[in-house]
Every structure is written in C-alpha cells, then in structure tokens.
Amino acid sequence: MTLSRQADFIQSIADAFQFISYYHPQDYIQSLAQAYARERSPAAKDAMAQILVNSRLCAEGHRPICQDTGIATVFLQVGMNVRWAADMSLQAMVDEGVRRAYNHPDNRLRASVLRDPAGTRQNTRDNTPAVLHTEIVPGDTLEVWVAAKGGGSENKAKFVNLNPSDSLVDWVLNTVPSLGAGWCPPGILGIGIGGTAEKAMLLAKKSLMYPIDIQELQARGASNRCEELRLELFSKVNALGIGAQGLGGLTTVLDVKVLDYPTHAASLPVALIPNCAATRHAHFILDGHGAVQLSPPRLEDYPAITWAPDANTRRVHLDQITAEDIRHWRAGERLLLSGKLLTGRDAAHQRLIDLLKRNEPLPVDFKNRFIYYVGPVDAVRDEVVGPAGPTTATRMDKFTETLLAHTSLLGMIGKAERGPAAIDAIARHQAVYLMAVGGAAYLVSKAIRAAKVLAFADLGMEAIHEFTVEDMPVTVAVDSQGHSVHQSGPQEWKIKLEQLHLN
Prior knowledge:
alpha/beta, CATH 3.30.1330, 5-stranded mixed beta barrel, 4-stranded mixed β-sheet, 24% strand
C-alpha cells in the first residue's frame, strides 16, 4: 500500500509544468537537429535554426519556449493500491499545481484559459482548470503524463468516421495539407484509430506523449499494423514537401504516432492531432517517496547550431517606412525590422472592427504602421516583455479587408499562411504580410527593446501594445502583389521530392 500525499502530488504537477515550459524533450531536440542537418531548403533550414537556438536560450534562461504556454493536460494512472493523504479532489489538486506553475514569480507563464467559452470568454488568470484524464489500474504507484498544448496545433485537430473499407492513409494525406502551417511544423502527428469518437481523440492525444523513435522503427521494421502505418505515413507526409513552418522542405514531421482500440464493425473512427515545434510533455511516476525530481537535459547535449541573418537580409526602419517602400519587397525576402510596431490579435481585432462599424474613433492610429499578431508572456526580472512569438495569422483573415480599407495599415506580422480572402485584400490594398517563426518566441523577444500597452488593457495578453524592436527577423510571406511563399514553397518542394524519388 502506497501513501500519496497531497502536498507531494501538487508540487510534482507544479514542477512538471514549469519544467516543460523551458525544456524541450531531448529526443525532440536530437531529431530536429538531424532534420536540420539533412534539410536542403534554405527557408526551412533558417526556421529550424531559429527553433533550435530558441530552445537552448530557453533552457539557459528558464523562460518559455513559446509565448503560448498551452492548456494544461494531464493523463493520470492511479494504482489500485494507492491510499491518499488528501482532502482535495484529483481535479482540485491538479488545478492547484497548474496554478502554482503558471504564476511562478521567476517564470510566469501566459494565462490563456477562458471560462464561459461560448459567452463572455473571461480569462481565469491562472490557466486553470486543467484537462484531466484518469484511469484506475492495478499497482501501487501514480503514473503521470503532463503536456502543455498550444492553441495553434490544438486547433488543427481533426476527426472523421470513415467507412471500414475507406483508406485511412488517403484521408491523412488529404487532411495534412489542409492544416496549413498554423501547427508550426516540423512536429509530430498523433493518430488514434478505433473505439468511439471520443476514444479515438484520446488515443491520438496520448500517442503524442511517447518519445520519438521512428528511426529505431525504420531500422528494425514493423511488427504490427500500427507500426506499418507509422512508417508509411512518415514517408508519405514528408513527401508532401510542406516543410518547416510551411515554407517547403524535406521534413514536415519528425515522427508519426499511432494508437488503436477495438471498434464497432460498422465503424472506422480516426483522429489526427498534431504536436507543434513547441513540443512540451513529461512523464514521471510517484511511489510515495516525495515529489518528483525531474532531470534536466545537459546543455552540452544541445546541438552546436547558431543563427544569424543572411547577408542579403534587408534592414527596415519601421518609423520611416512608406507604402511605396513595401511595393519593392518580394515574397521570400528576409527582413530585419527596427522601430515601433503595434500588436493585436483576436479580441483586439474584434473590438477594432466593432468601433469601425459604429463609426467611432479607434484608440490607436494605424496609418503607415505594422501590426504584430502576438499575445506575449508577462515580463519577469529585467525583461521589457516575456517570450513574444507570433500567433496564427489565419484567425485574423476575416478582419483583414476591413482593417486595411479603413486604417491605412501597411502590413501584418504573424505565423503560418493567409487564406485566399486575406491574400486578395493584401494585394488589393498593396499591403504586405510578414512571417515570424513560430516556436522561437524567446529569440524574438530578444529583439524587443521596449513595450507598453496603448489600448484595451483589460484584455491582458490580448491588449494592443506598442513594441520597439531592433533587428526583429521576419520573412515576406505575402508581398504587395499577392504572391505567397506558403503556396510556392510547398509546391516547389513537392516536385523536388518527387524528382528525388524518381532518381
């Protein structure tokens, strides 16, 4: 009989979520470094370098890998012989651990969880409640998996009820390109097969908790159908040419995980959930001997990779930029931004649009300015702002035409592709869309020299800020003529991969 103490369990949850906020799993770093060494696409290689450098900076500085520090997810297997010395429920203990982790004064994490999701959408301010999955199993230990899942990848989760005779592989290969780049590849695909709808989704999510081992599987060969699917999908998804950040390249996924469960004879439920470049999870076992002691990776085990801007990178002074200047920028061109830019994302955009509809003045002058789609982490110690990487730009597509038409905004900065309507609006108004690397939030924050809130302070991380930046690295993703690197890059590399295969 094992005695599990409330204080030890809460502290373990808190320590684990702090740990995964700044330490990538070592298998992810090693796998990404190998992919970086193989990569032939300059744009994808540059993005991977930024992610790897960012990872080491976070490990050294104990600051979040990504500004989206995720929704807290916990899988818990409770041994039947465990006795609790506790007066709180499992959910309450997990939530208290999450609360402590996300409000840690030395490494405050971003509170992204909103209550009343279909109504007022009020921030809970401490990222609770967590999503908890509990299973009672034989034994006398507590086995715990924790994960912090960002919205960019979580929003790309897909589910389908196929006919038993349908091709699961074809569905995956048709679905992955439709995800766009908002899930920040290169990452991992989790696939759940069977059971019922909710069981398939849980299988897909839990599969993402396991270490990257596709190379070992390739070496020994498949021993069952799930392993056969892993190998086939790994090869065929990478052959799509989507590449790092959707820019086109050799590596889109570092691994494909598959878990299955018996299902009804009439059914073939399939779930797909991607894990992004900010892969954050940990696994530990509590045996009644105190709180968990997680072992950090050694800094010397990180790859010796540096990042510096290309010699041809254009330096841009935001405070002097004009509409005529941006017409000379071309899709794929790399820039270093210096000067002042505004920030704003979903909630701020909605308020701006509402003000325009009512013919009321805006709280900020957007003329000849750039807006950065970001919800930064709160600053600690001597920081002017915490990690501040881009959020998925496609969520702002529906606001783009109105904002460009009424504000003389020059451009936008975010991550991933823009949809057809947004690209049309950008070309029509001769604006531009710039892409920053998702998964390099701490590296991006190093370029921010000052930050202040200008409007909508009640929105917290979604308020409109003004950042003063110096040499912030971005890529022209959509130029003023409507050319998009997220269309041309994958198309180019899909053809190249087909040619490599034929040769």
